[in-house]
Each structure stands twice: as C-alpha cells, then as structure tokens.
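Need residues for this backbone.
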C-alpha cells in the first residue's frame, strides 16, 4: 500500500515496484498514467487496461505527451525496456516514475487482466470456453455479435470500446440460459443495440446509442440491466413478455420511449433510473410490476400506464408536459404511507410529515404525494436533510411493529419491513448529516 500513495523521487531517479504493488497503485489512483513502452503489435496482443502506448524507441521525441508532474507506471514485456524508459523520464525531470518489475509477463502470471485488440470479437467468442472472460481492447469493431455461451465480455473503456452494427441487425444478440455479462462497451448503429433472449444475463455499465428501433430489447426472465446510458434510440429499453427482471440505475435520454413494458410483463423491478428528454418516460402495459425511486424529468409524458396491480412510489415527476396518464385504476401509487414527488403539486402538508394532505389524490392517483423529491430513505420527514428531527422520530418509533400505537411507517426504512428495529437505526446513523444535492 506504500506505493499507492504519492511518491516523490529524486530528480534523475525512479523506483522499482512489484506487480502486486503496481496493481494497488492502479486500483487506488485514478490519475495514474500507465505507460506501455512496447511496440504496437505487442500492445494489441494484450495490455493493461487504459495504458498509454509510447514505444521506448519513440519516447524521447514524445515527452510532450506527458507531464513532469504525472505519476507514471512504466511497463514492458519483462522489465528491461521499462527500466530504460523510466531512466529517460527521470533524466528529463519527471519526478514520479515507477518501473514494474517482470513486465506484463509477471502481470499475466499473477492472474491480472489484459485487454486484447481482436480482429473480430465474434471470433474471440467462438474460440472461448464456457465461463471465460474476454477483455476487449479499445477500438471500433464493425460487426454483429452473437453471444450464445456463458462468457463475460468486458470492454477496456465504454467510451472507446465500440461495437458498431453498421446500420443493420442486432449489434449484440445474447441468447440462451448461460449467464452472459456484457460491460464497459458502446453498442451503436444497429436495428437493435442489444437483443437479449433467455435467463440470467447482465448488461452493465454500457453506452447504447443511435439504434433504429430499440437500444435494449429484453425477452426473458431474471435478467439485469443496470447502470447503462441509453440515448437516441426509438425505444430505449423495451421488455416484451418478460418477468422478474431488474432495470435499475440506468440513464435514458432523448429516446422516443424510455422504458417500456409490453403486456405479459410481470414482476419486474424498475428502480432508480433517470429518464429525461424522452417523448415518453416510462410506459407500462403489463401488470404486477414495481416502479420506485426513478427520476422522470422533462419528458413529454412522464408515465403512461395501462396495466393493473403495479406499484408506483418514491418516484420524482419533474416538469413533464403530461406528468402521468393512467388508463387503469387498479394500481397502487404508494408503499402504504408515501407516494411520489410531483413538481406541480400545490397542496399543503398539515402535520409536518413531508406528505401532502390537501388536493388529493394528486394527478388523480396519488393520495400521499411527497412535498420534496425522494432522495434518501433516512430522510424520514422528507425535508431534504438527515438530521436530529429524523433521529428523534425513529427513536420514538423504535421497537414498534405495524399495528402498534407508536409505529411510524416513515421510519420503517430498512429490511425487514414491518418493524422499526436496529437495521432502521443503523441506516439512519450511516446517513446522518447528509443533505440533498
């Protein structure tokens, strides 16, 4: 861990670090410059993630591409060229230079990832075994990829590892029941970005953009679509006949439809997504789904719902032209005591619990509208900070269960629900002092 801290060496010198020390530096210092001094061919065959390539034979002529104040980790194949390059840097007044002993050979022997510039991602998948992880180097890959075995496909950097469908087909088709993971890539310029068939697949941390029809189309059960940025597609995320999937913490911008659930979609969780500047934020035809904790902002319509027995709560509806259209009445717009935040709500909170008490139901649906945006479960009075007032409310209710005189549903903020207990108190303590930003 010593080497993960800033290190000032004497001018004209550098330090040697082992592979484990180098890995610790990379993990702990996002501003670290990882410098590969091998050839382009060697680099393409496998390099450390997000490494900058400057062959040692070109280094003295390209020093202006680095800064003397940078902390730099230098590596090569076995450690010989990195020592030469590190001395060049030190002789030119670079103050924070580290040479990795053993080079990338030792890195690979330690079991750490290297990213490869493939001639074809599909060829890499075809040659992989079940359970393999494929680390894909930055670059633009013009192909339509089919993933039909249990592999993990990990891009070096989602901004620069690009799979481009060249205007046709599914850019990435995932099929089968084999637990596929795709992360840190950009998927663009297809009819559909991702087309997901089957069970237990994960689409995590990707950019999905500029696809003619759907950014992500999902037909299956127990899949996870999380932390993706989905922009400029016809539909951003479309679920067709899908159940028990998690769609969470995604950002959907400038799509015709943001998140859409067709009929026969049940028991899906739509949570903590940000939907902004879409024509329609969320559309639901299916039933028995949960929609909570989403920010639905500045869309033409916020939420359109034509299914039944869905639960919608803790969402923030902000400045949508039409906040909500509900063609069905048999849906729950609260969790039993708290509903949603509406930027156009003009009622009054009469008892100071953060829930509106007049002009109900707001938008014809919500009997418990929040006075402020929902942001933190520990803000039990919904005044946009977690403070002594929240702690006192929880203390008064501590130990109570549903049906007890002192039970306060606003304080029941952590599992298991139905009782105010130590888990609720710990969650409030962890968040104590936080303010809404």
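Answer:
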């Amino acid at each position: 861990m010593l080497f993960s801290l800033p290190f000032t060496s004497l001018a004209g010198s550098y330090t040697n670090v082992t592979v484990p020390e180098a890995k610790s530096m990379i993990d702990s210092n996002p501003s670290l410059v990882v410098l590969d001094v091998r050839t382009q061919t060697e680099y393409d065959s496998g390099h450390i993630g997000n490494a900058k390539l400057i062959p040692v034979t070109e280094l003295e002529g390209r020093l202006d591409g680095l800064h003397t104040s940078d902390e730099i980790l230098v590596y090569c194949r076995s450690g010989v060229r990195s020592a030469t390059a590190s001395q060049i840097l030190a002789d030119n007044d670079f103050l924070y230079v580290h040479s990795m002993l053993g080079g990338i050979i030792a890195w690979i022997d330690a079991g750490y990832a290297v990213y490869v510039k493939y001639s074809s991602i599909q060829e890499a998948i075809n040659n992989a075994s079940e359970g393999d992880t494929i680390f894909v180097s930055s670059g633009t890959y013009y192909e339509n990829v089919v993933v039909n075995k249990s592999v993990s496909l990990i891009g070096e950097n989602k901004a620069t590892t690009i799979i481009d469908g060249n205007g046709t087909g599914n850019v990435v088709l995932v099929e089968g029941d084999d637990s596929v993971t795709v992360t840190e890539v950009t998927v663009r310029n297809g009819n559909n970005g991702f087309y997901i068939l089957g069970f237990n697949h994960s689409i995590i941390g990707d950019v999905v953009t500029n696809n003619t029809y759907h950014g992500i189309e999902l037909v299956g059960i127990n899949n996870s679509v999380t932390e993706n940025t989905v922009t400029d597609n016809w539909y951003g995320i479309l679920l067709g006949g899908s159940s028990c999937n998690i769609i969470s913490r995604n950002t959907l911008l400038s799509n015709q439809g943001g998140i859409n659930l067709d009929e026969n979609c049940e028991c899906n969780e739509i949570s903590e997504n940000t939907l902004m500047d879409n024509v329609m934020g969320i559309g639901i035809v299916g039933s028995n789904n949960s929609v909570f904790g989403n920010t639905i902002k500045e869309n033409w319509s916020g939420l359109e719902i034509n299914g039944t027995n869905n639960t919608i709560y803790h969402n923030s509806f902000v400045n949508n032209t039409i906040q909500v259209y509900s063609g069905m009445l048999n849906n729950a717009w609260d969790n039993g005591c708290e509903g949603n935040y509406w930027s156009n709500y003009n009622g009054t909170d009469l008892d100071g619990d953060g829930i509106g008490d007049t002009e109900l139901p707001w938008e014809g649906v919500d009997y418990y509208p929040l006075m402020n945006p929902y942001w933190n479960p520990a803000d039990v009075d919904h005044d946009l900070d977690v403070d002594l007032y929240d702690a006192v409310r929880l203390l008064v209710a501590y130990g109570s269960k549903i049906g007890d005189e002192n039970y306060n549903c606003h304080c029941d903020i952590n599992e298991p629900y139905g009782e105010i207990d130590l888990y609720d108190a710990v969650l409030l303590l962890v968040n104590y002092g936080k303010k809404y930003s």
